[in-house]
Amino acid sequence: MLDINRKALYTVYISQGGKCEIKEVATIAPFASKGRPKGEKPPKKNLTIRLDEDDSIFLADYSEKNNITKSETVRKGLDLLKKQDK
């Protein structure tokens, strides 16, 4: 009996006498998800900003020195503003 919930590749053999035989050839592995793993709170919005040369250099240097991305540097700055605003 075929399990229709199982993902597999089957070959069907039909003999000259009309007898049908089904053989499982291989199990098909589910596709792996692509891309980065989702974090606790994955960002859903994009932001594009324009910076002058000094701010751009500061952002790049700070990020490199602290071994974090520019996006994470901006998020940390936003967190500081949130704490200050309370």
Features:
rod-shaped; alpha+beta; single chain; 2 helices; two-stranded antiparallel sheet; 34% helix; 86 residues; 2 strands
Question: Care to describe what's here?
Answer:
A hairpin with a 5-residue loop joins strand 1 and strand 2. A two-stranded antiparallel ribbon has the order 1-2. It has 2 helices and 2 strands. By secondary structure, the chain is an alpha+beta fold. The chain is rod-shaped. The chain is 34% helix and 17% strand. The model has no long low-confidence stretch (mean pLDDT 80). The protein has one domain. Helix 1 packs across helix 2.
> What spatial order of strands do you see in the largest sheet?
1-2
Q: SSE order in H/E notation?
A: EEHH
Biggest sheet, in brief? 2 strands, antiparallel
Class by alpha and beta content: alpha+beta
Shape: rod-shaped
- What is the share of helical residues? 25-40%
Mean pLDDT: 80
Per DSSP, the total helix count is 2
How would you summarize this macromolecular structure in one to three sentences?
With 86 residues, the protein is of the alpha+beta class. It has 2 helices and 2 strands; from the N terminus they run ββαα.
SSE diagram, text form:
Blueprint: E1 8-14, E2 20-27, H1 53-65, H2 70-85
Antiparallel strand pairs: 1-2
